[in-house]
Amino acid sequence: MQKIGVFVCHCGTNIAATVDVKKVVELVRYEPGVVFADDYMYMCSEAGQEKIIEAIKEYGLTGLVICSCSPRMHEKTFRACAEKAGLNPYMVEVANIREQCSWIHKDREEATKKAVILARAAIAKVNLNTPLKEGESPVTKRALVIGGGIAGIQTALDIADAGYQVDIVEKEPSIGGRMSQFDKTFPTLDCASCILTPKMVEVNQHPNITLYTYSEVEKVSGYVGNFDVDIRKKARSVDFDKCTGCGECSTKCPLGKIGKIPSEFDRGLKNRPAIYMPFAQAVPAVPVIDRENCTYFKTGKCGVCAKICPSKAVDYEQKDEIVTVKYGAIVVATGFDIINLDKFGEYAYNESPDVITSIELERLMNAAGPTGGHLERMSDHKQPKDIVFIQCVGSRCDSEEKGKPYCSKVCCMYTAKHAMLIKDHWPDTNITVFYIDVRTPGKNFDEFYRRAVEQYHVNYIKGQVGKVKPQPDGSLMVQAADLLDGKQINMKADMVVLAAAVEPNPGVRKIATMLTASIDNNNFLTEAHAKLRPVESPTAGIFLSGMAQGPKDIPETVSQAGAAAVKVIGLLAKDKLKTNPCTAQCDTLLCNGCSTCANVCPYGAITYDDVQVMDHGLRETRRVAQVNLALCQGCGACTSACPSGAMDLQGFSNRQITTEVDAICR
Amino acid sequence: MSMNEEKKEYRPLIVAFCCNWCSYAGADLAGSSRLSYPADVKIIRVPCSGRVNPMFILRAFERGADGVIICGCHPGDCHYSTGNYYARRRMALLFSMLEYIGVENGRTRVEWCSAAEGAKFSKTMNEFCEKIQSLGENVRLGDLRCKN
Amino acid sequence: MKYSYYPGCTLKNKAQDLDIYARRSAEALGFEMEEIPEWQCCGGVYPLGSDEIATKLASVRALNYAKEQGQDLITLCSACHHVLKRVNDDMKNVQDISDRANNYMALEEPYRGETKVLHFLEVIRDVIGFDELAKKVVNPLTDKKIGAYYGCLTLRPGRILEFDDPENPKIMEDFIRALGATPVIYSMRNECCGGYASLKDPEFTKSRTSQIFEDSTGFGAECLITACPLCMYNLNKSDADTKVPVYYFTELLAEALGVKEEA
Amino acid sequence: MANVEKQVQLIKDISGSDPYKCMRCGKCSASCPSYNEMDIKPHQFASYIIRGDIDELVESKAAWKCLSCFACIERCPRDVQPGKLVDAARQIVERQREGDYLQPDEIPALLDPETPQQLLVSAFRRYRR
After folding, report:
1. Any chain A CB within 8 A of the CB of C32?
2. Most confident of A72-86, C43-57, D51-65
3. CATH level 3 topology of B14-136
4. How much is the ipTM here?
5. Closest of D64, D50, D60 to residue D4, by C-alpha
6. Number of structural domains chain D divides into
7. Which helix (H) or strand (E) covers residue D59, if one does?
């Protein structure tokens, strides 16, 4: 039996004005387990707490009930107070007789009656409380960043600068991601590679950063502070230590001249050899052999690259390698791509080489791109005179089969950027932008768009384009409606640029599954709280950076990357993690291993184990649920889902809640 | 206290399960905004609406409660991501079974209430009390041995 | 291979060519088309209203007949093809329409969209194959540059008709290739000819068909093929400078297979 | 007012599409072959229905100028299907009033020897009850 002390607070007159405090004390004094009851003006004050400590010592109290304000206000205070007196802090319950009683009721008798009932419920609960202890788990002081674009690079640099070890896993042969493909960045129009390349080099040279390029995460196990990750280092077919990055192999590769392999980096606007670096500033500057296309790997003949390599770095025998590394935290920065445009046949993207996506336009305008920065049509290599931009291609679609329901967020701004850059270089180009809405929230963003209209005379027309019709003379006819002027338009164009919707990198669903990180219908990773925990996944120890979490531009990505890094640093700075003691617990004698609880657990905290149990004198092996206390957040979803009643939640056990119900309904 | 009181007008007994993160905080806000609702409502704090085991509700009715309301975070706002979705589905099923055995649908309710919706909390409780008041005493599931 | 065949009103009258050449070609290609007895007109336009039941029953009857024969249902006219496929989709997927139509019909066994509706071209593509067709061609139409005119009813809505990609179809182009000719791809090929507006507003239809001829001949088309009697009529009525002959696709098929002059 | 609400509901029921989904992107108007013939344009159908200006819509030329070519239905990114909305408006006229667009006695003058049956049945279905 517990020895319970009940303390009723007046809260000045906040409680005492409506609740007869003395009467409450009198009535709860004879509740089962209560050995002491008293009231005081301000329970939370120094003197009030002193009173509690004295009573604990004098009466040997094993449980406390404080009738006062909301536990959200002072539960912590009273728990600390109990701990000071040597009592387990989880032996304290608070009956909320202010917010939920005295403040909302006027009738003194009614309020007093309710206060007594609330106190009784708390007393009944404390009778069943057990001392709980916060668990501890160690922290591996190394972070993993999945994805080597600007989001991953920034996160890794920030963590590494704080003195922690970081590994980046990037599936492409080089880091740099989407940003390395861009020409200039809005709204300041600085050159993308001028600001990105130094960061890429810094990553490569940072003593705290290890790069795994051309590598993929294969398997993840463990939990916050203690992840075990298998990384597959795909065979590069080039010896990292020997290669000097001279590029001789790429120049001599016979396939480079035949030109049948479209360059992924140049979005298929140019071809590449089978042994290649994606782009000149690639980090690391070590080529890979694309084994699917390489003649040597297909037929066993050729071998030119191995013969001419001055440092004998080409190694056809190289195999995939799997390394297992321990991490304390994982950041997902897997980025985005644009959607496939096959479903938008009306825009003739597959029919005409002069209908291109915005990202292809970035390559066409880039000095290091396939045309050396000279804007030309892919069909006849002539400079386009009339250019039409179509916004929202696949964004803001209602039907799943056609596109994405969300706004891609970056298109309005980059289209204004493209329009101005083209006008800067070739002022007599006519540019028309067909838009549904122009969305430019952000610092200096709307000014940027207005500049396109006012200074560069870019023609903005409200109305989505219906069809792009390739014409016999090689031009394109754009059929649209000007909704504000109420006219259907047929406009001739030499080039049409589509602002295709962004979508999370297709591989992210597989990664999210490995991490048990939640992901939404659009394959964006879900944050722990949309407003208050925007860079954390609900799964402890997993953090989000960049487009993987939602559409965002470079400045936003960089700020989120920094925020994710801070969260990681905050985690790695701890030697041990304190875990919430109000966790689920499985009664192995009742569990039948049905997996219902594991299916509802949002944290992947439940695993199954075969254990030996003694049941009625029989020893048998059973598959039973086990709760990983470091992962469990104490939501209790498993407890109500469990069909056999094996799962229970400490601090809010089935018996505790039932006894509260009983006390209220007495 | 109750024994020697004269028989007054019927007051219902209502149990409210509130999740710690949204609706319990909403109830606190109703309190600090002094938005009153009948004292018939007694709140039990649970970590999440997904923690509410159907057994708790049956127990409440058995012990003489006239109405039970479960409050959770709005869809998409659950502190634990998905608990309220499970609660919604579980309760829909439970309530239809309760109705089948004669506990009217009006006696049970699931409501979403955020930490900022003190007014909504108070309004909901007022409505719910009125509803239970009109339905009268719950005689269907109550265990007569529990009555005094 | 035997199919139930739904010819439709026009093929019995003004578009007999479309029908006759199809029958001869089918024989040459080795499949049989059994005309459904007592078929009723599909109505030409699919009734869009979700509460329109009576106007859908004629199609349901034909569909159910094919089901009872255990045969797929073949059509030629693009309007019939459109209406039959959409009614069939309603019977399969729209509970309300399906239930009410079945109430009217009072069939022994309710019809729930079991029949597979195929356009003649789909049979060639999916059952026979364009490779096989090419092998059976005896008079290849070499050097002919032909524009396929799809119109609207064969293609849209693509999700229900599943005939081909509604914006960039290629079934008729593949067909033209199989006959030994060169397809001409032009963007007006899936734009409306003006349809039934020609009855009250022939000038409007003429402006539409002019655009179609201008675009197709601009890309070098020497003639057009179509599967739709109404498109045929509207295109023939055109007084465009760029007008070229228009044929039913079955006529060219019969010619290539060497069965045009039979019987 | 009650009558307007009823008509709005009727249009929603007949068409099976939801005018509130429309985001006024105008892709329908951009695609419509009859755009220039119409007084109310395809991208405006939804707002007429939402506002309850049903009379204006059913009395407009738009209802009769739609060719049922389904270009707007195929391309609508929001699944509003303007073609279905205007067809529902047309149905209302045809069902409730003497609103037929085509009278039997005017037909003989419109025919020529080549007129296909398909044209007549289609026109009958679209222009008459």
Report:
1. no
2. A72-86
3. Rossmann fold (3.40.50)
4. 0.78
5. D50
6. 2
7. helix D54-59
